[in-house]
Design goal:
Helices cover 81% and strands 0% of the residues. It has 5 helices and no strands. Helix 2 runs antiparallel to helix 4.
Length: 101
């Protein structure tokens, strides 16, 4: 009796299951959200120009952080695993053998 075949997980699912990247992405979105909400507090305590400067600095820093988290996930997602690399090299060797034969 054969064991049931497991469905192969999608690569993005494997990347997000690692946890750290997904947690960092959620954290980045959360801080961007909090920055958007609470940066208006600076306008109350600071003159308008300084409050606006702090607001844009905070939002741009949090937005850049969010972009870097998305890039991190993309880098891990596109990285070739060792088994995929070995499989690809074997296929290339087979193709070369077939061409020479």
């Amino acid at each position: 009796m054969k064991p049931p075949r497991r469905r192969k997980k999608l690569k993005i699912v494997k990347v997000l299951e690692e946890g750290d990247l997904l947690f960092n992405l959620v954290l980045a979105v959360w801080f961007l959200f909090l920055g958007l909400i609470f940066s208006r507090v600076f306008k109350i305590f600071l003159p308008y120009k300084n409050g606006l400067l702090v607001f844009y600095f905070l939002i741009s820093a949090l937005f850049i952080n969010l972009i870097f988290k998305i890039v991190d996930i993309f880098m891990v997602y596109t990285k070739e695993s060792m088994s995929d690399k070995v499989r690809r090299e074997l296929q290339e060797k087979r193709k070369l053998k077939q061409k020479t034969s």
